[in-house]
Amino acid sequence: MNPHASGWFRTIYAGTSSDQRFDWRILRRTFRYARPYRRQIALMFGTILLTSALALTPPLILREIIDNALSNNDLQLLTILSVMLVLIPIVNAGVLVYQRWLNANIGEGLIYDLRTGLFDHLQKKSLRFFTHTKTGELMSRLNNDVVGAQRAVNTTLVSIVTNSVAVISTLIVMLALEWRLTILGLIVLPFFIYPAQKVAPVLRRLARHQMEENAKMNALMNETLNISGVMLVKLFGRAESESQRFDSRAATVRDAGIKQAMAGSVFFAFLGLIGAVGTAIVYYVGGRLVLEDVFTIGTIVAFAALLTQLYGPLQALVNAPVDFMTSMTSFERVFEVLDLPVDIDEKPDAIALSTVRGEVKFDHVRFRYDALGDSGLFRKAVTRHGDMSSVSRVLSADAKSNGNEGASNGKADLEMAKDGDSQARAWALDDVNFEIAPGQLVALVGPSGAGKTTITYLLPRLYDPTEGHILIDGHDLRDLKLGTLSQHIGMVTQETYLFHDTVRMNLLYAKPDATEDELMAVCQAANIYDFIMGLPDGFDTVVGERGYRLSGGEKQRIAIARVLLKDPRILVLDEATSHLDSESEKLIQMALEGAMQGRTSIVIAHRLSTILAADMILVIDRGQIIERGTHQELLSQGGRYKELYDTQFNPQRQQEPVLSVPASSEDDPSPN
Fold first, then answer.
1. To the nearest whole number, what is the mean pLDDT of the chain?
2. Residue 469 forms beta bridges with which residues?
3. From CA 561, how far away is CA 141, in angstroms rounded?
4. What pLDDT band is residue 627 in, cutting at 50, 70 and 90?
5. DSSP SS3 for 620
6. What CATH number is given for 438-464+477-650 in this structure?
């Protein structure tokens, strides 16, 4: 026996907390998804009634064969009844095939609606949501939990209806056949109900536990099997330890599955034993009544067959709360995501701008990354068990935690000391004010962590400001349609992301209907056309996951070509060229200069040439604009910008440091 599974019997029937009781709102919500399939559902109910009626016919035919055909030596009747015993299963099989087709259409259609609704809802979530949620957890909800919900519809709910009809119709026939034996057969009914009431919440708890552990395993796979994770694992020689970590997670999922399977096995074995006792009682009492000529042998044979048909559906029906509550846990977990509010939402009367001049204004903008979590937006409208908002650990999830992982330890941890160059603070941006006229180039400079990237994230509404307003052409971003922002604002981030697809598809992501001439034009403007033409398949060359088959400069130029194809009026650039070789840097700089022509541009500057060309320079420090002006104006002030210029941008000071190599013992002139 698996040592990891030992002790399952002691823990399997542990009590459940009150917050794990089934919420019947989940069922009502599920039925709302079934409304478009009312016609198919009605037809399926009709097939259920028909198959139930056909299933009751063979026992009655057996009684006729024993009591009439055989006892009266009626060969013709025996032949007719025997043929009926063959025809009924054939007809029943045809009806069951049609019922299965209806069931599949309903279940698959409902799950299609649920899965697409879930994916669409996730597309509306802000960047903040994805920084607070593990990708593997979301994949688990979209895949495993949706499949579990499909099982609830295709199997559990249909089984409940089918078995209900079977039990009711069988009882009616049994009562009509022999009411005394029917009462005897139902004596054991309480022994079916009581165990089901006790086991149902336990199995539901075990099912949820298995789903949660499976989500953790998926999160680990997502972290370590993507290209960046694989590279990190290999560079640090952690392949063996990661295999051991995955083995531990997989073992937890396995043990959870064993506990769930064993709990169900014990329960069904107990129900089967009760059914056998009920059948034995009926045979014993019924046999004595046959000996006393109360009724015929055919009656008890038919009744025994009906009793078997009763106990099977009855066991399934009594177990329905167990299966139902277990399978509905999948719906519950999917609805947990659907219930999360959309924090970056579009107003019903939002304005669509066909043209944009490019005027940008930040008006007393304040922003903190943890504000949304503090406001409770990630908390569920109803009590839920999973916390999609927690930045929980992936690799060290097995370590003991006090339940506050990812949470702040208080304001003192956020309000760091302001002396020195530390950028740690509570507010990422604090009272930021500036205006950009149409067509101007504004450069953002400042130390790492000062808030430059945060400013660029707020403009396309990846986040909303905690306080204050951001305006384009005098319109608050919250009053504009999201499509307007995505149409007129283009952004090239420091870390370029390319899909695992062709160069062409990555470019067309900005404009799906772009022509070949347009692709050529933007690639030439981005100084990447000659490189693409030199690839084996040209525009149809696959770039690999996240574009890892290309160099950093090549990816960056493709990203610039992509944003040029979009042709936005406002351009946001994180001019990341510091990690590139001089040739790639020069090509990208030329591409950027062309991209900014005639557009309002906000650039996080890494090069002196960009700063010199800027109409205005904003010096950011600790989330505030501490200086603003042109290059010469700021230099003359002799403030923070002068310090940054001298340390980062002044060509005369940018000399390569000389590495100090310790002398070997042979060259060491010092005495021993």
1. 76
2. 363
3. 35
4. very high
5. strand
6. 3.40.50.300
Most confident of the following: 270-284, 386-400, 595-609, 651-665: 595-609
Give the Cα separation of 288 and 605 in Å (integer): 98
- pLDDT tops 80 at residue 481: yes
| Residue 280 burial (C-beta neighbours within 10 Å; 0-12, 13-18, 19+) | exposed
Residues 6+ apart with CB under 8 A from 129: 340, 343, 378, 389
Dist CA 89 CA 58 (whole Å): 9
CA separation (Å) from 133 to 127, 138, 185, 265?
Answer: 10, 8, 54, 36
Q: Which token pair is 500?
A: 């695992």
Tokens read off for 83: 């043929």
HEC letters along 252-315:
HHHHHHHHHHHHHHHHHHHHHHHHHHHHHHHHHHHHHHHHCCCCCHHHHHHHHHHHHHHHHHHH
SS3 350: coil
- In the chain, where the domains are located: 25-338, 438-464+477-650
Distance CA 527, CA 342 (A): 39
Task: Compare 651 and 156 and report the one with higher pLDDT.
Answer: 156
Q: Kindly state the percentage of the chain with pLDDT values over 70.
A: 77
CA pair distance 522, 526, nearest whole angstrom: 6
Amino acid (one-letter) located at 204: R
665 burial class (0-12, 13-18, 19+ CB within 10 angstroms)? exposed
- Asked which of 1-15, 33-47, 212-226, 630-644 is least confident by mean pLDDT, the reply is 1-15
Report yes or no on whether pTM surpasses 0.70: no
Angle at 606 between CA 601 and CA 610, to 5 degrees: 50
Task: Find how far residue 157's CA is from the centre of its chain.
Answer: 25
Helix (H, G, I), strand (E, B) or coil at 329: helix
Q: Which residue's structure tokens are 């001298």?
A: 646
Structure tokens at 224: 């370590």
pLDDT at 343 over 60: yes
Give, in order, the Cα–Cα distances in Å from 303 to each of 59, 71, 130, 276. 7, 19, 61, 15
Domain at 25-338, CATH from 3.40.50.450, 1.10.260.40, 1.10.490.10, 1.20.1560.10: 1.20.1560.10
pLDDT in tens, 425-437: 778 899 999 999 9
